[in-house]
Each structure stands twice: as structure tokens, then as C-alpha cells.
């Protein structure tokens, strides 16, 4: 359920790398459940290896959103495979957030718009970090 929730919000934010990772995770969970029910050790080993990779991916997401080291959300568009300027869906739709468009801005390309977001009860970075931390907790 947590992976499906995350998949939905990543689709809404056009976050292609997490969409792919979430899809692989959902498939691995299905195979892990099948391996458990059918007592297939190969499926369980595959699931165990996947969970190690899943924990690593979620640790990377936490580091990315907290901008640990040289990672920067303003410079790196890793989550969208450098194909667009989209950000997390939570950036504009977080709890209490007020989105205001900036008119006549020269900062954005012609097909994009510039916005300011204010008044959020919890910044989108922390929502993403909590989501990834939950995934790590469930994997462990």
C-alpha cells in the first residue's frame, strides 16, 4: 500500500526515476509474496537482494532531498532523468501551501511558468524524506 501511494504521487509529479523504482519494487513484492506462499527460495533470495537495493535507493532519495554532499535539487534533475523541470508533487500541493504564479517572469522557458510557494505546514522535502524513511522501515 505504501509503494502504491508513493507511485501515485510520483506520477503526479512526473518523477520518472522513482516511478521506475516503485514499479520494480511492486513487482519484487509480488514475487516475494509468491515465493513465500510457494516456498520458493530463489524468489525469496531475489526479494532479499531487492530489499537491499530498495533501502539504498531510499537512502539516496533522503540524501537528495536533504541536499547531502554535492546533491542539489536546483541543479540536478535526477528524478526526471533530466527530461523536464518538474519537481515533487508535494512542492505545490503540500499541506497548507499557497501557490502564487509570478507573471511576466523571464526566468522560465516559454512553455513553463514560475511560481512561489509559501505557508506550507511541512516543506515538500520533509514529506519526501518521511516517505522514504517509511519505505526503509518497512523494508527492514
Can you put this structure into words, describing what you see?
The protein has a domain of 83 residues. Helix content is 56%, strand content 7%. The protein has 140 residues and is mainly α.
Task: Give a short summary of the structure.
Helix content is about 55%, strand content about 5%. The protein is mostly helical. The two termini are about 15 Å apart.
Percent in strands:
5-15%
Major beta sheet summary: 2 strands, antiparallel
Quantity of strands, as a count: 2
Number of helices: 5
What is the 3D shape? elongated
Instruction: Provide the spatial order of strands within the biggest beta sheet.
Output: 1-2
Sketch the topology as an H/E string, one letter per element.
HHHHEEH
Percent in helix: 55-70%
Chain-wise SSE layout:
Elements: H1 2-12, H2 16-38, H3 41-65, H4 90-93, E1 98-102, E2 114-118, H5 124-139
Antiparallel strand pairs: 1-2
Helix pairs in contact: 1-2, 2-3, 3-5
Amino acid at each position: 500500500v505504501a509503494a502504491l501511494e508513493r507511485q501515485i504521487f510520483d506520477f503526479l509529479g512526473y518523477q520518472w526515476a522513482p516511478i521506475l523504482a516503485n514499479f520494480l519494487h511492486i513487482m519484487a513484492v509480488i514475487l516475494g509474496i509468491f515465493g513465500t506462499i510457494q516456498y520458493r527460495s530463489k524468489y525469496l533470495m531475489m526479494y532479499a537482494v531487492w530489499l537491499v537495493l530498495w533501502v539504498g535507493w531510499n537512502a539516496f532519495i533522503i540524501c537528495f532531498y536533504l541536499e547531502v554532499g554535492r546533491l542539489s535539487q536546483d541543479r540536478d534533475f535526477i528524478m526526471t532523468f533530466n527530461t523536464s523541470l518538474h519537481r515533487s508533487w508535494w512542492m505545490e500541493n503540500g499541506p497548507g501551501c499557497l501557490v502564487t504564479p509570478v507573471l511576466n517572469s523571464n526566468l522560465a522557458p516559454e512553455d513553463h511558468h514560475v511560481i512561489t510557494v509559501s505557508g506550507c505546514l511541512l516543506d515538500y522535502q520533509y514529506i519526501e524524506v518521511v516517505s522514504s524513511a517509511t519505505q526503509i522501515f518497512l523494508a527492514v
